[in-house]
Amino acid sequence: MPSLIENLSRDQVLFDAKNSAALYYDSPVRSADMHKDQGLFSSTVVVILEDESRVIVQLKDNEIDLTKVALARSLLGSVVPRMNAAPTEYAFFAYVSNFLPGKMWIDVDSQFGIEQDSAIAKQIAGLIARCNLGISSAGIVDSHIVPRLAHILKTRHNLPQDLRIRVENMLANVDSLKELPLALCHIDINKMNILVNPDTLEVTGLIDWEAAALLPLGMSAWCIRYLTVPIHRRQDEILEKSWPVTQAFWAAFFAAIPHNLQHLKSTFLLSAQIGFVLLNGIPESCHHSGENLAALVPRLAWLDRAE
């Protein structure tokens, strides 16, 4: 009988991981060990096969929509791991994927200055732009984004007045997002999901696509706020490099989008702000305190301009 990840022993997790890898890959399993970074509601194991290749096995409580991961890989290539389902005994679900080279950006960030961070941010901007699906986003705007913004205004009675005014303005101008194409949006681009080669600064991986959503292009670009402004002890720390790296990100993004969209810079900024509100700032499943909601205002202001 499968069990939740939190109820599994280390031995059970490693057994499942080795068994899943053995059943999926042709090469026998040599060893398996827990990955140094673990997520919520999952266990991640690095498995080494006899042919010296390394693979990742994730045991999860919830099922992954593998079509989203496959779509991301088709758009972005090898920076997205190839992921497949595998049999499991103790966990509910097991997924195997190829091991991507590089280190998490968060692990090497202290070594980098403006030039290095800008080089990485520009690549992320280019990857976001490449997720353009080239079809209309009007249906998603009408059926998903408009109702979500309206629901926030109707039910979140503790919104600070300046935040409420911002959300009202978003709702008033949301139809402009229909000019943007639909895109596959990674909803949690952070420095733990970005792998880089610290020597060449090449982005070698953008992982954790399982919660990706189909939204107007640019709605995931809000990530640049958290990629450039760290939060320490619940306080945002604007660094000397924060704004120059943000400018580099936006310049690369606008350079990468199709020519016929170049005149829509203000609309892309609005898309990023709405994405920030819906995907991070005021998600459906969470109720934030007034203090947390007040902190959203300066974070949204960071997305008011690109230069």
From TrEMBL:
Gene3D superfamilies: 3.90.1200.10. It comes from Sistotremastrum suecicum HHB10207 ss-3. InterPro entries: Aminoglycoside_PTrfase, Kinase-like_dom_sf. This is Aminoglycoside phosphotransferase domain-containing protein. Signal peptide: none annotated. Pfam families: APH (PF01636). Residues 157-218 form the Aminoglycoside phosphotransferase domain.
